[in-house]
Every structure is written in structure tokens, then in C-alpha cells.
Design brief:
The protein is α+β, with helices and mostly antiparallel strands. It has 20 helices and twelve strands. It has helices at about 15, 20-25, 25-35, 50-60, 75, 85-90, 100-110, 115-120, 120-140, 150-155, 155-165, 170-175, 180-185, 190-220, 225-230, 240-255, 255-270, 285-295, 330-335, 380-395; strands at about 40, 45-50, 65, 145, 310, 315, 320, 325-330, 400, 405-410, 415-420, 420-425. The strands form four sheets. It has a five-stranded mixed β-sheet, covered by helices on one side. A three-stranded antiparallel β-sheet has the order 4-12-9. It has a two-stranded antiparallel sheet with strand order 6-7. α9 runs antiparallel to α11 (about 155-165), α13 (about 180-185) crosses α14 (about 190-220) and α17 (about 255-270) packs across α18 (about 285-295). The radius of gyration is 21 Å and the shape is globular. About 45% of the residues are buried. This is Cytochrome P450. Belongs to the cytochrome P450 family. Its cofactor is heme.
């Protein structure tokens, strides 16, 4: 679609987002959609919201105006669920549950997956960051190009998850190799071969986590899996093995590729806006502001993959969303809505300086981690990895530059990369 010339309504925004033009740069189309068709009904019948105010309201209204699909409705919203392991695992995740089941599951994981536990990982994360940068340094200093995506952005969250889950690093690298296939299989427009590849990868993850749970039950250590399978003297309620496998599967899917993509985007922002690098050279508040602006400008997940079912007829912007319709939100479009963020295509960390995480100085919410009862459990873990990484990359490689243009994955859902080649420029070069 040529967004500069088109005046007719878009028939299917999901298909347009998968086009080569949108893979390269989705934001002109998102601007057109937000201005001309903000409550979009796709050819499949799914509704897609693109204005910040509508998205924020929909996320906040989950559990009230919207709900997840009930078990008996799974086939309606996921017609291939009867034969797909990945879709059944997705249906069992926390993000698909409504209160009171959601309340129970979130409480059980939150009692162990705490802010304090994540902050206690900072020394380990800093050590992993330093080791990965040490590994890149010799080739860079010889003037060679290095794929920062593979050597750093992918490796860091894999190694952090290995530390968090108490897994051998090689095991995590093996599991992570299939995450991209699973995510593509969960896209609303995935082909049958893509879903089959996702199911094969999910089966490997499911089997591994089942075995890991048994090992942690007999030989507990100081990791999150041991904590989740362990007994709590003050709480008789526990997660079943099936619930725990679903939880770990969801955490891995939700926190690996998205964190890697955000690291890539953060490095690209450092290179594209050298005048903004000073945010990474001062106090922690400045680094945090830079991270929030990266998350706003380039949300790693373009739209929500989880169905939100309208509990009643809902009117938004003159469009009636009928009861039982499947509604998704275009997070990346909301983050660049000028009614929420002034001059939204301009990269400006000042809009988040000194505020609460995710909130701008104007009191607007950055949407990349969601909002409401389904706010991302791993948000703090992702933020800590970015805060620990970016100042060290800037300090270690101040003349870092692109060796060639990065290569993106052809995904409508995740704005991720295949390669991000970098090199060092000579001082003054």
C-alpha cells in the first residue's frame, strides 16, 4: 500500500503489516491506519486498534469489557488448536486467563519472581555483558565486522534465562534456537507448515521443562524454577507441573526474542542519534530514560498476539465492535500517536527522564509491556538487561558503527533482526 496516495480503506491491516514495505518501515502505514481506520476490521474478522487512547483503554478494560477465550471457545478463535501443541500451550498461559484463575496464577509466580530477585541478578547480568563484549573485542579491534545481533543481543537474554532458570548454558542455546519458529507459528496468519514447525519446537521445550522441574524437585538450587516447585510453609497452594511448564514456556517466548530485538534497536538508536549518547554516560536515571524511549519508538511486538474477546457491543470512534469479536491492539502505532507523545517520530529520552518506569513526563503510558492485569511479568528483567548493557557498550566501543545495513526477519508480529553487522571506526573517522 502506498500510504501517501491511498484514500480507500485498507482491507486487511495484518496482511499489509507483513508486506516488504512494512517490514522495512511500518510506521507510515501505521500513521495512515491511525488517522483513517483506527478501529480496523480485518478480512479475518479480527479488529485492530491503533490509537493510544483506545489501546490504553482496551488493555485496562481486560477482565471487564474484554476477556480471554474460554476453554470451550478455543476452536473458534484458534481453528487449528485441536491438533496444535503450540496453540494449546498458548491457551494455557497466564496471558490467556481471566480472574479468578489469572489472579491465582499471577500470585503464585509473583511470590518468587520478585523485583528483588531480578535486582539480585544484576551482578550476573553485568558479568555476562562484560564477557560477551570481551568476546567481540578482538575481531572489532582488528577492523573486522561482527554480528552484534548474534554475538550479543541474542546471547545475553539466553544466558540470563539460563541463570534465572538454573539451566546449563548449552541447554538454553538449544531451546532458544526454536523460539523464532514458535512465535511465527502463533501469528494469526501462520501457514500450516509454520505451525507444524512451531509444534515441533514447542514439544522440545515442553519435554525439557518437564525434566527440569523433576530435577529441581529432587535437587533444588537458588533459581526461580526451584523456588516455583518448592514448598511454601505459609501457602498451601502450588503450581501443578502442567501450569509450571506453561508458565516457563510463556516466559521464554515473551522475554527472549523481544529483549534481543530491543537491544538491537537500542544499539541502532545509539548509532543513529549520537547527540543522545550523553544519556548513557551519566546517572542511572538518564540510562533508564534512554531505554524507555527505545521501547516507545520501536516496540519489539507490533501487535498483541493474544485474543481479547469483547464481552458486549463496544463503540469506539463511531465503529461498533460486536460482542464476542476478537480484538487486538497495534502497540507500535499507539506508541507513536501524537495525541499521546509530542513529535512521536523524534527520538527524545527527555520525555521519560525522572519518571516512573513507562510513564512520560506528560503522564502518558508507553505501551510496549502492556497495561492492566496482563502487564508483562518480565518487564523489569528486560529493563535491567538493557540498563546494564548500553552504558558498557558505549564505554567499551565509543566508535561503534554499522558495517552494513541490518537484516530484518520478515515478521509482521515481531520487529526483529537476522543480522546487525557492526565495526569500529577510527577515532575521528
Amino acid at each position: 500500500m502506498d500510504v501517501l496516495e491511498t484514500t480507500a480503506a485498507c482491507r486487511d491491516a495484518f496482511a499489509e503489516l507483513a508486506s516488504p514495505a512494512c517490514i522495512h518501515d511500518p510506521y507510515p502505514f501505521m500513521r495512515w491506519l491511525r488517522e483513517h481506520d483506527p478501529v480496523h476490521r480485518a478480512a479475518s474478522g479480527l479488529f485492530l486498534l491503533s490509537r493510544h487512547a483506545d489501546i490504553y483503554w482496551a488493555l485496562k478494560a481486560t477482565g471487564d469489557a474484554f476477556r480471554g477465550p474460554a476453554p470451550g471457545e478455543l476452536a473458534r478463535y484458534f481453528p487449528r488448536a485441536a491438533t496444535s501443541l503450540s496453540l494449546n500451550l498458548l491457551a494455557s498461559t497466564l496471558a490467556m486467563k481471566d480472574p479468578p484463575t489469572h489472579t491465582r496464577l499471577r500470585r503464585l509466580i509473583s511470590r518468587d519472581f520478585t523485583m528483588r530477585r531480578i535486582d539480585n541478578l544484576r551482578p550476573s547480568i553485568a558479568r555476562i555483558v562484560a564477557a560477551r563484549l570481551d568476546g567481540m573485542a578482538p575481531a572489532l579491534e582488528r577492523g573486522e565486522a561482527v554480528d552484534l545481533h548474534r554475538e550479543f543481543a541474542l546471547a545475553l537474554p539466553m544466558l540470563v534465562f539460563a541463570e534465572l532458570f538454573g539451566m546449563p548454558q548449552d541447554d538454553m542455546f538449544g531451546l532458544a534456537a526454536g523460539i523464532g519458529a514458535i512465535l511465527e507459528g502463533l501469528s494469526p496468519h501462520a501457514s500450516d507448515p509454520q505451525l507444524a514447525m512451531a509444534d515441533a519446537a514447542s514439544a522440545r521445550v515442553q519435554a525439557y521443562f518437564g525434566d527440569l522441574i523433576q530435577r529441581k524437585r529432587t535437587d533444588p538450587r537458588h533459581d526461580i524454577v526451584s523456588m516455583l516447585v518448592g514448598a511454601h510453609d505459609d501457602d498451601a497452594d502450588t503450581l501443578s507441573d502442567a501450569e509450571l511448564i506453561s508458565m516457563l514456556w510463556g516466559m521464554l517466548l515473551g522475554g527472549f526474542a523481544t529483549t534481543a530485538a530491543t537491544i538491537d534497536h537500542a544499539v541502532l538508536a545509539m548509532l543513529a542519534y549520537p547527540e543522545q549518547r550523553h544519556w548513557l554516560q551519566g546517572d542511572a536515571v538518564g540510562v533508564e530514560a534512554f531505554v524507555e524511549e527505545v521501547l516507545r519508538c520501536d516496540a519489539p511486538a507490533m501487535f498483541s498476539s493474544i485474543p481479547r474477546i469483547a464481552q458486549r457491543d463496544i463503540e469506539l470512534g463511531g465503529v461498533v465492535i460486536p460482542k464476542n469479536a476478537d480484538v487486538r491492539v497495534l502497540i507500535a502505532a499507539g506508541n507513536r500517536d501524537p495525541n499521546a507523545f509530542a513529535d512521536p517520530d523524534h527520538f527524545d529520552p527527555a520525555r521519560f527522564y525522572g519518571t516512573s518506569p513507562g510513564m512520560s513526563t506528560d503522564g502518558k503510558i508507553m505501551l510496549s509491556f502492556g497495561h492492566g492485569i496482563h502487564f508483562c511479568l518480565g518487564a523489569q528483567l528486560a529493563r535491567v538487561q538493557l540498563v546494564e548493557s548500553l552504558p558498557r557498550i558505549q564505554a567499551r566501543f565509543p566508535t561503534l558503527a554499522l558495517a552494513e545495513q541490518p537484516t530484518r526477519e520478515p515478521s509482521a508480529f515481531l520487529r526483529t533482526f537476522r543480522a546487525l553487522p557492526v565495526q569500529l571506526h577510527a577515532q575521528g573517522g
